[in-house]
Amino acid sequence: MRYIAVIILSLLSVNFSQSQINELGVFVGGSNLIGDVGATNYISPNAPSLGILYKWNKSSRHSWRISLIYSDLKAYDDKSDDPRRIQRDYSYDANLLEVSAGMEFTFFDFNLHTGRRVATPYLYSGISVARHRDYYFLNGLQTAESGSSWAFGIPMALGFKTNFLNNFVIGFEIGTRFTFSDNIDGSYPEDQTLQPYRFGNQNNNDWYTFTGFTLTYTFGENPCYCPN
Fold first, then answer.
1. 20 to 30 A from 54, CA-CA: which of 60, 159, 202, 227?
2. How many other C-beta atoms lie within 10 A of the C-beta of residue 99?
3. 2-8+22-219: CATH topology
4. Where are the domains positioned within the chain?
């Protein structure tokens, strides 16, 4: 949390009068859970996701980025290819709120002040933390615990973006979050009194994926992208 707080404060304290460019916009797409409940398809959005994001383009090849995404995660055993899961027939439906911060790297120069159309694939990675309600399964039914937890993870996203209509940038990306938690889907409750309700592969943590579009508005002075 301290690392994320430092990044947020650094971004908010940026002096916009210096030579730099900023992007502020939205993410709209879908999500899917990869865990001990439901299908194990890596890219199979089945629930809506909506978020906001900010980028500080440090150079034409890399940007600092922070996002806040709210999503409904869903998973159904009857959608799985595993006969054991189909027979078990568990279902999971819960909300998740994620903060992610890190750096975006473009494959080609992405200089928005050339006056021309520019486009490039990009990679994004950093650190993420997601707030989710704690659950367990009682007699096959998803049951809420009294508290909630934070799931830390590493986001890895691949996307493509291009500018249009002067100050707007549109993109499409697929991003997986490799978390350090095995309890997003309720398969590994941390409460010691709920140990009998643990199930699934306890050696594999839960993942989730966001797939969708980004739309950002650019503002700020022309960057020189020159060494100090």
1. 227
2. 19
3. Porin (2.40.160)
4. 2-8+22-219
